[in-house]
Amino acid sequence: MNQTPLQDNPTSLDHRSDPNFLAYYEQASLSEATVARFRTIRDKSLALLAARGQDTSCLRVADIGCGAGTQSLLWAELGHSVLGLDVSAPLIEVARKRAAERALEIDFEIGTATALPLADGAIDVCLLPELLEHVADWQTCLREAVRVLDSGGLLYLSTTNTLCPVQSEFNLPLYSWYPRFAKRRYERLAVTTRPQLANYATYPAVNWFNFYKLRQFLVPFGFDCLDRFDMIDLDRVRAPLRSFVKTARAIAPVRFLGHVLTPGVAVFAVRR
Predict the structure, then answer these.
(1) Cβ proximity of 108 and 5 under 8 Å
(2) CATH, domain range 19-162+203-239+263-271
C-alpha cells in the first residue's frame, strides 16, 4: 500500500471520546449483529469486484472511520492489506489491541477523512461505514476517497437516510424528517448540555442523505452506483422479499418506496 506521511490534523479536531460513548461502542462493535453486517459487506464487495474481473486475492483496503477495527479485522483475516483510520484515539487503541490479540498486521492510524494519508490511486477498496453524517465537510471526505481509489476499485459507504423516519443517530422520534433549523438546535444541545441525545458522540450526525443524492455526486467521477436492492442475492431471501426486490429493480417508484422504508443508506460504487 502506497502510503504518504500522515498529515497533521487540524487543531480543531477532538481526538478524545466520551467514556460513555467509548464503553458503548467498544461493546457494540463486537456484537454478533455488527460482525455479521460487516462480514456481509466484505463478502458482497468481494463478489462484486470478482464479477467485474478484478483479482480479489490480496486487495489494498482503507477502512475510514474504522472505530474499534471490527471491519478491518475481517478483511485482514482473508489476507488483505488494511489501513484503518479514525479520529478517535481511544478507539484506535482498542483496534490496535484487538489486532495484536489476533496476530493480524493492520495499520491503524489516528487521522481525518478529509486528508487521507494515502497517495493517489493507492487503494482497491475504500470503506466509509457510517461516517459521512459525522463529517461537516462531507464533499471533501468523498473527494478524498475518490482520489485514493484506483481504477476498477470499489467504494462502499453507509450513512443516514433522510427519506426514512427511523434512525439511530439521535434519541428523538422521526428525527430524519425534522426541518433543518430543528436539527441544528439538537446538534448544539448534543455537544453541550444534552450529550445523551446523540449517544454521547463527540461528533453527532450533522448531514442527512439519500441514495439518489450520493449517486448524483459520485457518477461524474466515473462510478457505477448500486443500492441495497441491487446487491440483494435473490436466491438467499424469502419469496415476499424476493418479489418486492424484483419489482423495485424494475419500477423506480417502488424502489423509492423501498428507500423510504429502510433506515440508512448503503452504496456500493465501482470506479470505471
Answers:
(1) no
(2) 3.40.50.150
